[in-house]
Amino acid sequence: MFYKYQENTGRYVKVVPSNIIALLTPVALAYLIMGDGNYDSLRNRVRIYTNSFTKADVERLAEAINQNFGIYAGVMLDRKDQYIITIGANELEKLRSLVLPHMIPSMMYRVGVTT
Fold first, then answer.
1. Which SS3 state, helix, strand or coil, does residue 1 take?
2. Is the CB of residue 40 less than 8 Å from the CB of residue 31?
3. Which CATH architecture describes the domain 17-106?
């Protein structure tokens, strides 16, 4: 479901499924952040490094975060043709209350919480 076969290359590429809204739960978001998240203390925001996905996939995932949890997630160009999701300071408390119950303590720093 998260990999699509490309006939022209003979390889599978990572994709965000078209039904991500139905799949994205607080647990799934917590795992995504534990795996690919980063807390930017200078700007007081969380970044999710989705660089390997297309811009359309990243936008679909950001929209699912917004729709499912009421958390605004922006899409930002990180480098050439690579996009990340950012969740700003105004949304952090909402994000933390949603994902912290599902995160292992050693990974809570990824949302700016130290144990």
1. coil
2. no
3. Roll (3.10)
